[in-house]
Specification:
251 residues, alpha/beta, Rossmann fold, binds adenosine-5'-triphosphate, binds magnesium ion, BCAA_Transport_ATP-bd_LivF
Length: 251
């Protein structure tokens, strides 16, 4: 069973859905990415997983438990933590205080968990008494990821954790994402940069105009003409629909 399974999700902000009939699964210990052009509905889908938006169709399962109707603030307790792209730390609190907030209410001993999280993010331990607002943008993104980990999630959903970062810091963030997956967490990352997604992920979903255009293991997605797909002129295989040519949703 995959840690995260989303089935036939339609979701949006008004009457007509932005995301239409999207299915996705994310296995434990692996990195799954969603790529797609601006406005494709990637963040809308992530917000739906996090319970910020209610889907009009479909269901969301974490470790086999249906969380579709669980209120957003209770979803972390069901094992799914979400890091939005912006405004993802409490700027006036210290690093340590941000982590304490992330660990509340905690499953085990929050101090023990913080030490575990510091083992994954040693630089944050050094900066633990700094105000989050005084960290660089990249450091704030790392703190947001670390805070989400405090809840010991089975699934962590990261919305463009490298947006606006320097190439050097982007590498650092991806290294950390790899370490989170290495600890056994299912990681779902929205990534603007296709090359980076293909470099780091094991599974890739291509979202175009709110629908799942293609998905599969990275080796298969790498064969597609993603630039053409993004521009709406798929030159990979003009006769076949890409989704149907790629291996099934159950990885
Ligand atoms: N709060 C909102 N209210 C109404 N429409 C919205 C809202 N947020 C996003 N949209 C619309 O939903 C569509 C998808 O937006 P979304 O932010 O999900 O795209 P995205 O794939 O995350 O894009 P980007 O790569 O630019 O982050 C867009 O047409 C956008 O205008
Ligand atoms: Mg977005």
């Amino acid at each position: 069973m995959d840690a995260l399974t989303a089935e036939n999700i339609s979701s949006g902000y008004g009457r007509s859905p932005i995301v239409r009939d999207v299915s996705l699964s994310a296995p434990s210990g692996k990195i799954t990415t969603i790529v797609g052009p601006n406005g494709a509905g990637k963040s809308t889908f992530a917000k739906t997983l996090a319970g910020i938006l209610r889907p009009s169709t479909g269901r969301i399962l974490v470790n086999g438990v249906d969380i579709t109707r669980v209120p957003g603030h209770l979803i972390p307790r069901h094992g799914l933590s979400y890091v939005p792209q912006n405004d993802n730390v409490f700027r006036t609190l210290t690093v340590k205080e941000n982590l304490e907030v992330g660990g509340y209410p905690s499953k085990g001993d929050p101090r023990e968990r913080m030490l575990q999280v510091f083992r994954v993010f040693p630089d944050l331990q050094k900066a633990q008494d700094k105000k989050a607002g005084n960290l660089s943008g990249g450091q704030q993104n790392l703190l947001a990821m670390a805070r989400a980990l405090m809840a010991e999630p089975s699934v962590i959903v990261l919305d463009e954790p490298t947006a606006g970062l320097s190439p050097a810091y982007t590498d650092i963030v991806w290294t950390q994402i790899g370490r989170i997956a290495g600890e056994g967490t299912a990681v779902l990352v929205i990534e603007q940069n296709v090359e980076r997604a293909l470099t780091h992920a094991q599974f890739v979903h291509v979202l175009v105009a709110g629908t799942n255009h293609a998905h599969g293991p990275v080796e298969e997605i790498a064969k597609l003409d993603l630039a053409g797909i993004f521009l709406g002129q798929d030159r990979t295989n003009s006769s076949a629909s890409t989704t149907s040519t790629i291996s099934s949703i159950n990885h």
